[in-house]
Specification:
The structure is a single chain. This protein is mainly alpha-helical. The chain has a single domain, classed as ABC transporter involved in vitamin B12 uptake, BtuC (Orthogonal Bundle), CATH 1.10.3470. It has eleven helices and two strands. It has a two-stranded antiparallel ribbon. Strand 1 and strand 2 form a beta hairpin. The radius of gyration is 19 Å and the shape is globular. It is a multi-pass membrane protein. This is Branched-chain amino acid ABC transporter permease. It is found in: Cell membrane. Keywords: Amino-acid transport, Cell membrane, Membrane, Transmembrane, Transmembrane helix, Transport.
């Protein structure tokens, strides 16, 4: 029983971190209709900046600078590239984000090399014991922080002027523009939010029990992509549900790896895509995605 509680707790903390990344995918897709394949390199850029700055100025300053750098990089991508091709074929735009990812990732790999950088977080490798259950402090901090960020985001989406403008733009871009809403500003804010959330997620994916920040971190965004698609790419709430589902599924497989050894090693890494495959067989638009209706 203690093992099950530990696995579920670990899965939930991992799931909310995946939800942050998935929310970045979803908010950009909802605002622009573009699937951002550069999200992984933005995540790595933010986390790398946090690690480098935190080593000299402390974790809090490093986190603020990392979020700012990733948000600014996302803004530059939106302003300098998508400004000239916005409104074009969404497949072409997605391919452009793939090109951005390759360029940015190549530069980051050159900077980081084979090093494994510590994040210099305040939780270190401290483990908290609650009865027979042992939990790393980093997992608790990840769950609390990610949950707070998700709550703030959804509250802003529901009650703020920005949230109203975002919802109006995603419903009908042309009508929103006629009402005085600036779709370009909404698009830029969506990209910046995605970059900032990815940085926070990257930090918590690089702390204990993982050894630290390394270039393979960018591939983690590919695990969050199934979470976003699973919930429905045009559903922000679905990103949260998808992230929790993927996190729990992966943690359960990893936690009971010995009992499931017949599945082979590394099956936990395959689990997100298997869950995605099964769900999409039943519901191609995801659990909460909008179904397209075609008049014939």
């Amino acid at each position: 029983m203690p093992q099950l509680i530990e696995v579920i707790t670990s899965g939930l903390s991992l799931g909310v971190v995946y939800a942050l990344i998935a929310l970045g995918f979803a908010v950009i897709f909802k605002a622009t209709g573009v699937l951002n394949f550069a999200h992984g390199s933005l995540l790595l850029l933010g986390a790398y900046t946090v690690a480098e700055v935190a080593a000299k100025a402390g974790f809090v300053i490093g986190l603020v600078v990392g979020i700012t750098v990733a948000a600014f990089a996302a803004l530059v991508a939106d302003r300098l590239v998508f400004r000239f091709v916005r409104g074009g074929d969404h497949v072409v735009l997605a391919m452009i984000t793939l090109g951005l990812d390759i360029v940015l990732l190549a530069r980051l790999v050159n900077l980081l090399g084979t090093r494994v950088l510590p994040i210099h977080d305040p939780w270190r490798d401290v483990v908290v014991s609650i009865g027979a259950v042992a939990l790393p402090q980093t997992r608790i901090a990840a769950f609390v922080t990610a949950s707070m960020l998700l709550a703030v985001f959804f509250a802003a989406l529901r009650f703020s002027n920005w949230g109203v403008a975002m919802r109006a733009t995603t419903q009908d871009r042309e009508a929103a523009a006629l009402m005085g809403i600036r779709p370009g500003l909404i698009s830029a804010s969506a990209w910046m939010i995605g970059g900032g959330l990815a940085t926070v997620a990257g930090v918590f994916l690089s702390v204990f029990p993982t050894p630290g920040l390394e270039t393979a971190l960018s591939l983690t965004a590919l695990k969050a992509l199934p979470a976003a698609v699973l919930g429905g790419l045009d559903s922000l709430g679905g990103a949260l549900v998808g992230g929790l589902t993927i996190g729990l599924a992966e943690a359960l497989i990893a936690g009971y790896a010995q009992q499931l050894s017949f599945l082979g090693t590394g099956f936990a890494d395959v689990m997100p895509y298997l869950v995605l495959f099964v769900v999409l067989l039943v519901r191609p638009t995801g659990m909460f995605g909008s179904r397209e209706l075609t008049r014939v």
